[in-house]
Amino acid sequence: MEIWINPACSKCRSALTLLDAEGAEYTVRRYLEDVPTEDEIREVLARLGLEPWDITRTQEPAAKELDLKTWDRDAASRDRWVRALAEHPKLIQRPIITADDGSAVVARTEEAVRDVLER
């Protein structure tokens, strides 16, 4: 499995601590340094079963600068959202774990991390 993290994020650190405690094998991706492409974001969204606006941190300064709250949330606007996430990776909700079974989860809670471990 792979986990997208921001090392400064307490939720990310908590997820890593739990993965380590459970002896999980995983790869860390510091997504602010190793920025996901638009295609990678689309793939993760498909695995999550979510839309780009569902994983967007709308309180980030970049979100406010882009005025994301006014953007449409529909199929026609999907690519615009994905592009914004690729251009401003701080907007991506974290941590995201992609599991070996092809699924993914936004792992902000212990329950979400455990759910991935049980797959």
UniProtKB/TrEMBL annotation:
The keyword Oxidoreductase applies. One of its GO terms (molecular function) is arsenate reductase (glutaredoxin) activity. The keyword RNA-binding does not apply. Coiled coil: none annotated. Pfam families: ArsC (PF03960). Keywords: Oxidoreductase. Belongs to the ArsC family. This is Arsenate reductase family protein. It comes from Streptomyces spongiae.
